[in-house]
Amino acid sequence: MRVALWRNRKYGFESVNNESDEKYYSKMPDYVRVSEYIDIDFPILPAEETVALELAALDAEERELRDALARQLVRLNDRRAQLRALTVQS
């Protein structure tokens, strides 16, 4: 894989981007390529490690979704209770 270092002038961070992203980043005025492209071979992690990390991320995402759903259900039930209270008072 060929990568180069790019700097975001607006926010001051740097990122490593693939050569195939050149067309995208070169059109953005806030990004400047600050290095030449170099070839890098990334060692691939064992599947046991990557699968475990991905499963943990999916579990966390599911917890977030369940929590968000629970909050929405509480909001709906509160609104129902408010509406029912209005009809009882009338």
Question: Can you walk me through this structure?
Answer:
The chain is of the alpha+beta class. It folds into 2 domains: 2-39, no CATH class; 44-90. Helix content is 53%, strand content 19%. It has 2 helices and 4 strands; from the N terminus they run E-E-H-E-E-H. The protein has helices spanning 22-26, 47-89, and strands at residues 2-8, 14-18, 31-33, 38-39. Strands 1, 2, 3 and 4 form a 4-stranded antiparallel sheet that branches. Strand 1 and strand 2 (14-18) form a beta hairpin. The longest helix is centred in the last third of the chain and has 43 residues, at 47-89. The protein is elongated. The mean pLDDT is 93.
Rg estimate, integer Å: 25 Å
- Broad structural category: alpha+beta
Report the sheet with the most strands, covering strand number, pairing sense and barrel closure. Answer: 4 strands, antiparallel
Helical content (DSSP H or I, runs of 4+): 40-55%
**End-to-end distance, in Å?**
71 Å
Shape, principal axes of CA atoms: elongated
Uncertain regions spanning at least 5 consecutive residues: none
Order of helices and strands: EEHEEH
Number of helices: 2
Q: Domains counted in the coordinates: how many?
A: 2
SSE order and pairing:
Blueprint: E1 2-8, E2 14-18, H1 22-26, E3 31-33, E4 38-39, H2 47-89
Antiparallel strand pairs: 1-2, 1-3, 1-4
